[in-house]
């Protein structure tokens, strides 16, 4: 990080219109909704270091039912474009005056706070940093990305319309600064994110053991 008191805004992207599993963010998983579990996991990072995350915001399409849940539970939210997710992130980050953006997706109810803590504490930090399950040894559902507002602004400016459903596609390159978790075993075949009803049933079994 550069200047002192930089604002790290965790932006959780979530929507109710998933084709494979509609309303998945508002599905019950154990005794909590999926979106509640994601928000709680991000909050838990600040239990390890209260200065790491400045704001936690759910970024969702305009008029999405998730907004009502956020309002009821006093979770900050931002309404933006449904399909231009990159624009949704950019406008949200600008509104909350983010210096750094921690990107979390709303289908990761078992996100590991310790891994996110490690990502945020990584030094030296580049403009784009990631915990990608497909390039590392972590399970799907533990992945997260951290990037500067300048990097997001550049992506917002340069990414063509056909790719704007993907927030960080333009940012990723061979120069990415991936967090090396230095594990002996490869857990990347383990799926802990939520895409289908089969995933939901499996995650329900996991949650029973937590």
Task: Please give a quick description of this structure.
The chain has 210 residues and is α/β, with parallel strands linked by helices. It has helices at 34-48, 66-72, 85-95, 113-121, 149-158, 197-208; strands at 8-13, 28-29, 32-33, 55-61, 76-80, 100-105, 128-131, 144-148, 177-178. The protein contains six helices and nine strands, in the order βββαβαβαβαββαβα.
Which CATH first-tier class would you pick?
Answer: Alpha Beta
Assign the CATH superfamily. Spore Coat Polysaccharide Biosynthesis Protein SpsA, Chain A
How confident is the prediction overall: mean pLDDT? 90
Strand arrangement across the biggest beta sheet: 5-4-1-6-8-7-9
Compute the number of helices: 6
CATH-defined fold name: Spore Coat Polysaccharide Biosynthesis Protein SpsA, Chain A
Radius of gyration: 16 Å
Span of the ends, CA to CA: 34 Å
What order do the helices and strands follow? EEEHEHEHEHEEHEH
Q: What percent of residues adopt helix (DSSP H or I)?
A: 25-40%
Biggest sheet details: 7 strands, mixed
* Portion in beta strands: 15-25%
Question: Based on CA inertia axes, which overall geometry fits?
Answer: globular
Low-confidence stretches: none
Assigned CATH architecture: Alpha-Beta Complex
SSE class: alpha/beta
């Amino acid at each position: 990080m550069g200047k002192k008191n930089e604002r790290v805004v965790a932006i959780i992207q979530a929507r109710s219109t998933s084709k494979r599993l509609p309303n998945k963010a508002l599905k019950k998983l154990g005794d909590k909704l999926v979106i509640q579990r994601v928000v709680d996991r991000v909050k838990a990072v600040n239990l390890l270091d209260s200065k790491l995350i400045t704001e936690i915001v759910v970024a969702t399409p305009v008029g999405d039912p998730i907004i009502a849940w956020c309002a009821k539970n006093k979770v900050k939210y931002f309404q933006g474009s449904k399909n231009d997710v990159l624009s949704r992130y950019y406008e949200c980050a600008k509104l909350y005056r983010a210096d750094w953006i921690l990107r979390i997706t709303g289908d990761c109810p078992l996100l590991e706070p310790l891994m996110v803590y490690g990502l945020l504490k990584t030094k030296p930090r580049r403009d784009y940093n990631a915990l990608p399950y497909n390039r590392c040894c972590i399970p799907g559902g533990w992945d997260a990305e951290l990037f500067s507002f300048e990097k997001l602004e550049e992506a917002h400016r340069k990414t063509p319309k056909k790719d704007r459903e993907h927030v960080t596609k333009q940012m990723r390159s061979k120069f990415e600064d991936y967090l090396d978790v230095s594990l002996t075993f490869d857990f990347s075949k383990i799926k802990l994110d939520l895409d289908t009803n089969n995933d939901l049933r499996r995650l329900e079994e996991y949650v029973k053991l937590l």
